Automatic annotation (TrEMBL):
It catalyses: a quinone + succinate = fumarate + a quinol. This is Succinate dehydrogenase flavoprotein subunit. Keywords: Electron transport, FAD, Flavoprotein, Membrane, Oxidoreductase, Transport, Tricarboxylic acid cycle. PROSITE patterns: FRD_SDH_FAD_BINDING (PS00504). It comes from Brevibacterium samyangense.
């Protein structure tokens, strides 16, 4: 076992982790631990854009952006956080520009901007051009730019290091972060990283679903690791289904396709969004568009031989425009569905995309132990965190923004904290790596007969079938019973590879444990929330219920407690921060 010492340890090298590292790396001894090589992080798959009210191509301001974010999130957004994000968006884009990011430009040389769902002029009057972009490779450009700047600042990376535990100590009755324990993929060695501060930036957990836009690696590790250490998770029941996944596959076609003029049509060729969102139509927020699509299919107006998808029509756009603005995603349609977007509409259906919930933080990215107690030295940013700027439904382009704004804030806050903090002493009579050693050894030596792939498949299938765009008590109970049975089967899981070098078998088994744990929390939260809001739609409770549910869900691990029949969990609530926008009816 190797032991390392740093001021700041950042877990994750996606956009949030690297944006944090650029700040902290210039001010404090910083290590970035990442299970993927940094430029393979999912941020690199982001397509459409990153928004900021630059007003480069039409009138706009950060207050409109704040309002859109709050309304888009169906009023579960913490409004102080949304204000910070919308205000700091402008510098976040300019920071990236100065770091060298090649944004698309207007003819006068300004950063160009395009439309995206839910972003409007003057509180919903019409769509506004707010998304900055680099063709449909915006995330790729962000990730490369951030990585180059990390290298420039000499940030130390530990690539293919899987963090499997968070170290915490108690000093004078206060629980603090003390480091992280990682498994090195190449050697199978376990490393203890002692540090004054730890920043989690481990991304999402879309792999709880089968049909998803998310990469295979998005297994919610940071979310599960902190939860296992007694920290709460916030608003996990809210999961976003992106309207335009390639039908049957889930591969994403960015909302930029609609931002550039693409239109959704049902099997009858009708532009059905005119009925559901008469003002902004195809550019309504994702929860509304995804539900409308699912509804068209349910009511028999789907397209295709089985009428089980709808169509994204780009055929009225000039091929040259498609090539300039949407080159990658149209290539996906050709490659994976054999459809030519110049001349044929593309079959699409909602795909699991983004977890609004996660590790609760305040606006300085400090992790919360409960509603207002901060854990000294512990930070989280990006998709694994819940600030909450997205509330119950995130607007497109607000995540690339979130990772830049709150990644930067996390890096700055951690660097400031370590200036005066001491390196926490670990208890001498305890082995800090014991938890991880036991987990790894138990898995490696297990003679279990259940396969990882089979359990994962069953998990993803029940989540797809029962925790979807539309949910009811009955579907959620089915999913919960399935997940409980799968957790039993998981106790008897076995792996083929018993070696120590590049043992991906072992790590997939551990990641499956994270997915099972997270799924349970998602379902329990969804069962408890007997209302419909944003991405969470209960057919048995179709209305938003502000009197009873205008509050965040906080779920804790607690052996003494029980929630929705599940032992070992405790549920509490956290008030929503309302500054200037009282909840209103949400019409588009
Ligand atoms: C296909 C697609 C397109 C998208 N398009 C857009 C868009 O156009 N605009 C927009 O705003 N948003 C978009 N999003 C959402 C957005 O890209 C993500 O929410 C965001 O990039 C997440 O960034 P992150 O830094 O939090 O995590 P990620 O970029 O996912 O990075 C996670 C990091 O954590 C590391 N990690 C994870 N677990 C561990 C562990 N156990 N130990 C060590 N390291 C670990 C990984 O190695 C990785 O480096 C898109 C998402 C997808 C999937």
């Amino acid at each position: 076992m190797q032991v390392h010492e740093y001021d700041v340890v950042i877990v994750g090298a996606g956009g949030a982790g690297m944006r944090a590292a650029i700040e902290s790396g210039q001010r404090a001894r910083t290590a970035v631990l990442t299970k993927l090589y940094p430029t393979r992080s999912h941020t690199g798959a982001a397509q459409g854009g990153m928004c900021a009210a630059l007003a480069n191509v039409e009138e706009d301001n950060w207050e409109w952006h704040t309002f859109d974010t709050i309304k888009g999130g169906d009023y579960l957004v913490d409004q102080d956080a949304a204000e910070v994000m919308a205000k700091e968006a402008i510098d976040a884009v300019l920071d990236l520009e100065k770091m060298g990011l090649p944004f698309n430009r207007t003819p006068e040389g300004k950063i160009d901007q395009r439309r995206f769902g839910g972003h409007t002029r003057d509180h919903g009057k019409a769509p506004v051009r707010r998304a900055c972009y680099a063709a449909d490779r915006t995330g790729h450009m962000i990730l490369q730019t951030l990585y180059q700047n990390c290298v420039k600042h000499g940030v130390e990376f530990f690539n293919e290091f899987y963090v499997l535990d968070l170290l915490m100590v108690e000093e004078d009755g206060v629980k603090k972060a003390a480091g992280a324990v990682a498994y090195e993929l190449a050697t199978g060695e376990i490393h203890v990283f002692r540090s004054k501060a730890v920043v989690f930036a481990t991304g999402g957990f879309g792999k709880v679903f089968k049909t998803t836009s998310n990469a295979h690696t998005l297994t919610g590790d940071g979310v599960a690791v902190t939860f296992r250490r007694g920290l709460p998770l916030e608003d996990m029941e809210f999961f976003q289904f992106h309207p335009t996944g390639l039908a049957g596959l889930g591969i994403l076609l960015s909302e930029a396709a609609r931002g550039e003029g693409g239109i959704l049509r049902n099997g009858d060729g009708e532009r059905f969004m005119e009925r559901y969102a008469p003002t902004i139509k195809d550019l309504a927020p994702r929860d509304i568009v995804a539900r409308s699509m699912a509804n068209e299919v349910r009511e028999g107006r789907g397209a295709g031989p089985n009428k089980d998808y709808v169509l994204l029509d780009l055929t009225h756009l000039e091929p040259a425009h498609i090539d300039a603005k949407l080159p990658d995603i149209t290539e996906f349609a050709r490659t994976y569905l054999g459809v030519e977007p110049y001349t044929e509409p593309v079959p699409v259906f909602p795909t699991a995309h983004y977890g609004m919930g996660g590790i609760p933080t305040n606006i300085d990215a400090e992790v919360l132990l409960d509603n207002d107690t901060v854990v000294p030295g512990l930070y989280a940013a990006g998709e694994c965190a819940c600030v909450s700027v997205h509330g119950s439904n995130r607007l497109g382009t607000n995540s690339l923004l979130d990772i830049n704004v709150f990644g930067k804030r996390a890096g700055l806050a951690a660097a400031e904290y370590v200036k005066t903090a001491k390196l926490p002493e670990l208890p001498e009579d305890e082995n800090p790596a014991e938890f991880v050693q036991t987990m790894v050894e138990t898995m490696r030596s297990s003679n279990g007969t259940e396969s990882v792939a089979a359990i994962r498949k069953d998990l993803q299938e029940t989540m797809d079938a029962n925790v979807q765009v539309f949910r009811t008590e009955e579907t959620l109970r089915t999913a919960l019973a399935d997940v409980e049975a799968l957790r039993e089967r998981y106790k008897n899981v076995g792996i083929q590879d018993r070696g120590s070098r590049y043992n991906l078998d072992l790590l997939e088994a551990i990641e499956l444990g994270f997915l099972l744990e997270i799924s349970e929390i998602v379902i329990v939260g969804a069962l408890h929330r007997k209302e419909s809001r944003g991405g969470h739609f209960r057919e048995d409770f179709p209305d938003r219920d502000d009197a009873n549910f205008m509050k965040h869900t906080m779920i804790y691990k607690d052996p003494e407690a029980e929630v929705e029949g599940i032992k070992g969990l405790r549920m509490e609530n956290k008030p929503v921060v309302v500054t200037r926008y009282q909840p209103m009816e949400r019409k588009y």
